[in-house]
Amino acid sequence: MRITKFARVFVGIASFFVTGVYLSDSGIVFPVKPSWRLPRCSECGRICPGYDHSHEPVRWVHLGIGAMRFILEYAPRRVQCPDCGVRVELVPWARPGSRFTRPLEEMTAYLAQITNKTEVSRMMGISWRTVGNIVKRVVADKLDPKRLDELRNIGVDELSFRKRHKYITTVVDHDTKRIVWAAEGKSAETLDAFFDELGEERTALLESITIDMSAAFIKSIKAKAPKAQIVFDRFHVQKLASDAVDKVRREMVRNLKELDDPEEAAAIKKSRYALLKNPWDLSAKEWDKLAAIQKHNAPLYRAYLLKESLAAVFDETSQDQAGKELDRWLAWASRSKLGPFVTTAQTIREHKDGILAYIKTRLTNGLVEGFNNKLRMIARRAFGFHSADALIGMLFLCCGGVMIEPPLPGPWCNW
Ligand SMILES: [Zn+2]
Fold first, then answer.
1. C-alpha 75 to ligand 1 mean position (Å)
2. Cα of 251 to ligand 1 centre, how many Å?
3. Structure confidence by residue, pLDDT tens digits, 258-306
4. Number of domains in the chain
5. How is 18-76 classified by DSSP, letter by letter?
6. Residue 414 predicted with pLDDT over 70
7. 320 assigned to some structural domain
8. pTM of the full predicted structure?
9. Which range marks the domain in which residue 255 is found?
10. Contact, 179 vs 159, CB < 8 A?
């Protein structure tokens, strides 16, 4: 077999010829050219008249064997595209603007899906920044362009990165369980941009939107998608009650210290987990702590019961019944003489409709937050992303339903 034919098989891309081979300091170089005679625009892909001929050869890094790199070399032409103007021609072995071949980019994206930054950089011999750029290109190429069509039930959440100095708003499709949209920021304008991209027709199809109680998101949904039902995430609502229990507990510890009862203060201080955990997760020791609170500390025990009975409202299956239960809960919390619960009751009363919508839809942001946890892990593993763009690329790569086919041996090769 001639080396040029071998190279063509090895690179694994159709539509190009290998015209030679030589050794350079950077690896084995194959001078190549596209097999199509007429050049194509790298922006739109259409066949166009040539504009001029570059004499400067460009190199594209390809996968290697062991430590040996393979490199493709070609002097691209420029084309006069009637739509895009003067552009560099498209080459079949690489994405526009990239100095890496498609198989190398596929392999990098595949590894970025499954392993950490250090390993991807090391195995591919490229910097993390470059990995980020490759991920962006692969995602732009492979992301389902129809992902925003026919959305019915979506979830909106925010993800913080760079030590909580920056935010990304994510939109997931509850039905396909994929991330369908993301942008930097967490304001009403950020979410407005999503609805603008969706357009009126597709927005009108939306039935429900799960969110936490972010005032910015509520504002945007009410302005841009007024027909969609807002569903407040039950776990965020329940967290309000948990936070209220904790505030009551801390107040109590403070008061006891002032009353000079350090022993009792210490006992209550240690009861935090017993008070905040679900009852079925409590250890025997924590049950004892709870029993002691029931016996000696009526207000704190009342706070505990308020938290638990709010959770029970969400377990109702009839919206009517849940509505009645919630009204009873609100009345109880309002006259509980526990400041944090009076405040929580006000918040819940203001958001009652969206809270009860959960009973019917049973949708939560659990899916969104699952993604966020995954991404937080990715961001941590990668010692922090500097740009929102890079993180959004990883987000679509790992949770956007992007299918990567890395150039790996097939299943016939299982020796
Ligand atoms: Zn064009």
1. 19
2. 67
3. 777 777 777 777 888 888 887 778 888 888 888 888 888 888 889 999 9
4. 3
5. E---EEETTEEEEEEEES-SS-BBTTT--B--EEEE--S-EEEEEEEETTEEEEEEE--
6. no
7. yes
8. 0.81
9. 234-361
10. no
